[in-house]
Specification:
The complex is a heterodimer. By secondary structure, chain A is α/β, with parallel strands linked by helices. Chain A has 19 helices and twelve strands. In chain B, helix 2 runs antiparallel to helix 14. Chain B has 14 helices and no strands. The chains are: A alpha/beta, B mainly alpha.
């Protein structure tokens, strides 16, 4: 009796446990092919508002399909990327997913995980709606794989007007040399001349210096392998960066971009280099006394980054995805998204009057300037390349070793550039 | 029930099976043993199976991954043996892995040294019969109840690297007290930053080590103290030659506990500095490589960490096992 009771307890326990694990995964499957699962990391703030705007347009433009929100929150997309990687490996892709346009897509392209959209570009009239420079940055071996939903500009210099005026800086510098003179004036006033944050913000600053010293075409070449990293112009750029670092706050490695932004808002710093999401952020924080200009020496160059959507191979509802992508690329869709998110449309036919002051100038620049990609935000380089460069910048920030940085850059290009 | 192989009369199955037992003793022996440990094994089996799959199975899977040519989100391009391990030491850009090991070494030495010294000092003071011992014990032990993430956020603010007008946290206190020369860059120092990073960990774990040492002191028989006093030993001699030697097993346990925690340190560093070059240790490096889809490299670092931790832990477990068998 005792024995059988023990056995039965064990068996019951075991079955209960197995049953609990067995009913873990159900659901899925879904109803018909009406649903379009859109996978993003836009879960809150202006990004969520932008997505909601886009969903509204999708509802009117594609009444046959239903939007399903597949957003994975957290970690600036790092959580979402992990989930996405495992779903793609298991051949269970969402109908479409968010990714930075440009070289960050290379892994997916060479793995054959996303479809060529070149024919759709012609069909939807996107080839002419987007600027030629963007089209050429997006094209990989003659094919385009993604539809950008928005454009941000990376090479912008933000300033506190009052601080700049008190240091006697009347006009924005247009060359690095003139910029150093201005920084000296700010230093003499006892403020931090240039507010800077940790590794990736340093990479953005370095990219701007590279654009100033190499020019747009050679800069693009750095990312596709046609410009070598061991050249004298790169050495000079690193030396310039080293000099710029001496004008920055010493605790930069403890700063995120918003901490550096705070120095500007409090009048403790003169300048900060940051992408143009800073305009939306300063507006949201109610700070009006800011100036903006392109980074000195970058005149005529628009360094872009963009969020885009793709068509994964094996998507359950390819027709629905195509309708979503068409909406993303359309003038209405881009307007609905960007007026809420604080970025600008990738299309050149946007009506500037629909946007706030800064975005109006950015829209005008986007049409007329030369487009170059940003590595720090995935347009110019793959994720591995970006990670290696961020690490190299962090090292340079702590040891200031010019030749060691150049060696690391050459090694990273050798390992990651295509 | 453990040692008695004889099945008690009242649980024997009635009738028919009784003769069978006498005729075929071998088979029944097997049967009765199964009856002895069968139900226990059955009860344990879910956790055994889960352990086998999710711990040992996945360790094997990780080891296999660490020997693949799989550095992107794409499938593996083939087996490369130990290349990934060699590359960690020989071909890593700016010797990033070696740098992370150096950081870990500085952190480990300061962390273990700090907790052992503070823990021993506090235990010694309390053992000498300080007033309100219970209060102090709680006060010292309490930081352990806080998670590394929560304390990391606070220490991030305390160890603000700004100086002079921009000083914050501890530097601001120094500034206000006119001790400006004590202000320092904390964890942003290129060489000794990791020593500052160890401070929060010391703050959290010293109380625990103190508790270990107090238990160690309490475990020493009073007869020994009395015998020493009878022999005319001074307090110094008592501690130096009688009590401290008896604490060796406690020190060993403390070393193992703090040592393996130190080697796997991740959450504290992520919340104080975030993932970046200056404070990168192998566990953070694993995270960074995983986020850039360099699966083979992150597996290789993980396996390397596992081996290093095992080198510390396994001899200790063997030692404890033998000691328990002897007693």
């Amino acid at each position: 009796m005792r024995l059988s009771r023990r056995v039965s307890v064990a068996v019951v326990g075991l079955t209960a446990l197995l049953a609990a694990t067995a009913c873990g995964d159900d659901g899925g499957g879904g109803t018909a092919v009406k649903n379009v699962e859109v996978f993003t990391w836009w879960a809150d703030g202006g990004e969520k508002a932008g997505l909601d705007g886009l969903v509204g347009t999708f509802g009117t433009a594609c009444p046959n399909f239903t939007f399903v929100n597949g957003a994975v929150a957290g970690g600036a997309g790092s959580n979402a990327k992990q989930v996405l990687a495992s779903r793609l490996t298991q051949s269970d892709p969402p109908d479409t997913f968010q990714a930075h346009a440009g070289n960050e897509l290379n892994d997916y392209i060479s793995a054959g995980q996303i479809e060529d959209l070149s024919a759709k570009y012609t069909e939807w009239g996107l080839t002419n709606a987007f600027p030629a420079g963007l089209i050429s940055n997006l094209t990989v071996d003659g094919k385009i794989y993604s539809v950008p939903a928005n454009i941000h500009r990376a090479n912008m210099l933000w300033g506190n007007k009052t601080v700049l005026a008190s240091a006697g800086i009347a006009a924005n510098a247009t060359s690095l040399d003139a910029f150093f003179t201005d920084l000296d004036k700010l230093k003499a006033k006892g403020v931090t001349p240039l507010a800077l944050g940790k590794d990736w913000t340093q990479l953005m600053l370095f990219e701007s210096v590279l654009i100033s010293n190499l020019g747009a075409d050679k800069f693009i070449g750095l990312w596709n392998g046609s410009t070598p990293w061991d050249g004298a112009d790169v050495t000079k750029s690193i030396a310039d960066l080293q000099k710029l670092m001496t004008y920055t706050n010493k605790d930069r490695d403890t700063f995120d971009w918003t901490d550096a932004e705070k120095l500007i808002m409090e009048g403790k710093a003169g300048y900060q280099l940051m992408g143009d999401w800073e305009a939306a952020d300063l507006d949201a924080k109610g700070f009006k006394d800011y100036s903006y200009t392109v980074f000195p020496g970058n005149t005529g160059v628009f360094q872009w980054l963009a969020d885009s959507f793709v068509l994964p191979k094996g998507a359950k509802n390819a027709a629905g995805t195509e309708c979503w992508l068409k909406t993303v690329g359309s003038a209405e869709g881009q307007k609905a998204f960007n007026t809420k998110k604080g970025s600008i449309p990738a299309r050149t036919d946007a009506v500037a009057a629909d946007y706030p002051a800064y975005q109006q100038t950015a829209i005008a620049d986007w049409k007329s300037l030369k487009q170059v990609p940003s590595c720090a935000h995935g347009a110019g380089c793959s994720q591995g390349y970006m990670g290696a460069l961020n690490s190299a910048m962090g090292k340079f920030s702590s040891d200031g070793n010019v030749s060691a940085l150049q060696t690391a850059l050459v090694a990273a290009a050798g390992q990651f550039a295509k | 029930m453990a040692t008695n192989t004889q099945v008690p009369a009242e649980v024997r199955p009635p009738g028919g099976s009784q003769p069978g037992r006498t005729h075929r003793p071998g088979r029944m022996h097997w049967h009765s043993r199964l009856r002895q440990w069968g139900p226990g094994l059955l009860l344990l089996s879910p956790s055994l199976i889960l352990l086998a799959i999710f711990v040992y199975g996945l360790i094997g899977w990780t080891i296999n991954l660490s020997m693949q040519d799989r550095h992107t989100a794409r499938p593996s391009k083939g087996f490369v043996g130990l290349d990934n391990y060699v590359n960690l030491f020989a071909n890593d850009i700016s010797d990033r892995f070696v740098h992370s090991l150096k950081n870990l070494a500085v952190f480990t030495v300061v962390f273990i040294g700090g907790t052992l010294l503070l823990g021993l000092l506090w235990a010694f003071l309390l053992e000498r019969g300080a007033k309100a011992e219970g209060v102090f014990r709680t006060v010292y032990l309490f930081p352990m109840a806080v998670s590394f993430v929560a304390s990391g956020v606070v220490w991030r603010w305390l160890m603000n690297a700004g100086t002079g007008e921009n000083a914050g946290g501890i530097n601001a206190i120094f500034e206000d007290l006119g001790l400006g020369f004590l202000e320092n860059p904390w964890w942003t120092h290129p060489n000794w930053g990791m020593a500052a990073m160890a401070m929060p960990a010391i703050w959290q774990l010293s109380g625990y080590i103190m508790a270990l040492f107090i238990a160690g002191f309490r475990g020493i028989s009073h007869d020994l103290r009395e015998a020493a006093y009878v022999d005319g030993a001074t307090s110094y001699q008592l501690y130096r030659h009688v009590l401290f030697p008896q604490l060796t097993p406690t020190v060993l346990s403390a070393l193992i506990i703090t040592g393996h925690m130190s080697m796997k340190m991740f959450d504290l560093i992520m919340s104080v500095s975030g993932a970046q070059w200056i404070t990168e240790v192998p566990a953070v490096y694993v995270w960074q490589t995983l986020l850039t889809s360099d699966y083979a490299k992150s597996a290789a670092i993980s396996v390397f960490l596992l081996v290093v931790v095992a080198l510390v832990i396994v001899p200790y477990l063997v030692h404890v096992n033998r000691a328990e068998k002897r007693s």
